[in-house]
Amino acid sequence: MNRPRALAGLLCAALLAAVAGCGIPDRTDVQVDGSGPAASAGSSSFARGEPPTRTASGADREAFVRNFLAAAAGEPERAYARVKQFIAREDRNRLAEKQGSEVAINVVRLIENPVITENASGLLTVRVPVQQVGVLRANGVLGPPVVTDTEYQFSLRGSAEPGQEGTEAGGYYVTDPPSVLLLDTLSLRDYYQTRTVYFWNSDATRLVADQRYLPLAVPAERLVSEAVKWLIAGPSEWLRQGVSGLPDRTALINNAVKTDGRWEVNLDLPGDDRRKLEKLGIQLAWSLSDLDGPLQLTTRNQSRVTIDDLAAHRLANAVYPLTQGPQRFTVYAGAIHPLAFEAEAIGTVPIRTEDNHDVVSAAVRRTAEKTLAALVTTAGGGRQRLVTGSGVAPVQVMTPGAQTFAAIGRPVWLRPLGAAQPYGLVVADGRLYRFDDRARMVPVPVGVAGPVSAVAASLDGHRIALIVGGRLCLSTASLDGGVVSLGPVRHVATTLTDLSAVDWAQENALAVAGSTNRSAVYEVGVDGVQQTPLVTDVGARVTHLAVYPGNPTYVLPTVMMMYEANGVSYRFRASSAETIRGEQVLDVPPPPAGGRAGSPTAPFFLF
């Protein structure tokens, strides 16, 4: 049995069981990310396929408003028709219809429940306070918002269709409707499944994840065709600088078909390059991560690549080169020490003893050939310095940087391209810097205004999360030509404020520390739709956050996260957090007579 699949299945079962017994209401912004169940062919179920019709709510005005905010869900070509069912006939022309790729659905998060008031004439007025999350396009991409409205208002009237005068059987109609299609985040969760598609980076050496939304109403037999179309359409805008799309004019010839248990995909591929076809096969194997069995790619010129089994192809072409599980470390009394927890591997300090002093925080990564180490150390006079090195662990040469700063954040390494020079990113005195394994630091322009306060890099080494001007942002790092540059910055909507730390929690989700009137850590989707509380009351502002990112190559049964707040370090365990105790820190000499034991700080993972 495929081990990642088995573990993922057990985790899903545990999550379902937990949700069933926790008393969470049916409609809540607490969400679990991931692919929903595929709809059966031709399904029209209100529950999982198409959203409810206008009359499904009967005389329940609150249910009618919720259903109106779900009506745009489903296959995009019918979105306007579904929404206009809810709008009074005389006002339907207020919603200008668009076709094909121009269909755009404004995804919003309800900040509070819709407010419904009745005036003296009996007309109902609805006010919907929202946060703009993004625009869902026909190709399944959720792009950044294009409008800034913080609330929408419209009116309701009772049905006055022939034969229904004076009754409530016909429900309600919307009058003075919004001029755009609206879809709330909860309905996006209910009527779509999230899918991950993969694009090659610029030198085709690694895959980079990109998220799509597939309506549950789409028959399961169209999934392969949809995945191919997503790859042909190219990556999300914010990813374009760090990845490569398929050659221009690539096209799918008819829909993919399944014959005798084998999927067949016919393409018009310019250049008819067999190597590109093989690369596309790897992309598709991962982009169809829940499909097994054979798949055949054929071009118009009859070049052919056959994948005997998609599951085996994924194992043979791992999306991430992870061969060992994560190991936990912490800074204790100015030095790096391993942490010991039950049933977890214990690591050895990856730097020499003579370099392991005056440490404030650290980042260590494994590559195929060596270990990369970056230390933030004290430099006297209240200043801090970056010290870096690379080599077989323990790293033999650590080089101190020439510059000192008032404050340096937690450094992060970018996954190097083969044997190329390794680089990392770090925030120092409110600016983003690139560094190498000789501690040379160069400023990296971010492209948006505001001080940079935190940075995190995904496992692929190309997707970058930032906190800039107090806002959560995403960008793509390009390593072309040995120069680290960032692409366009995308702001990610979240209800958290006072953001202080960020790290990657999953392929398409971030762990973000901030405030909801109390200090908290949330898991936030890369497009802002998902918001899942991990720790709801930290007790103090989080100043350091480290997560082992969930991924399909090395699956873990629970979120692995550590953080520091008010000088105390914590380990997250199954929806709660516990203090990391001094006795869990290994190789610590006893304090001098009369001295006090130190506290673990700045915990991190080596993987």
From TrEMBL:
Domain called GerMN: residue spans: 196-293
Domain Lipoprotein LpqB C-terminal, first and last residues per copy: 356-536
UniProt KW keywords: Signal
One Pfam family recorded for the sequence: Germane
Biased composition (Low complexity): 34-49
Disordered as annotated region, ranges: 32-58
Source organism superkingdom: Bacteria
Signal peptide start-end: 1-20
Protein name, per record: GerMN domain-containing protein
Originating organism: Micromonospora humida
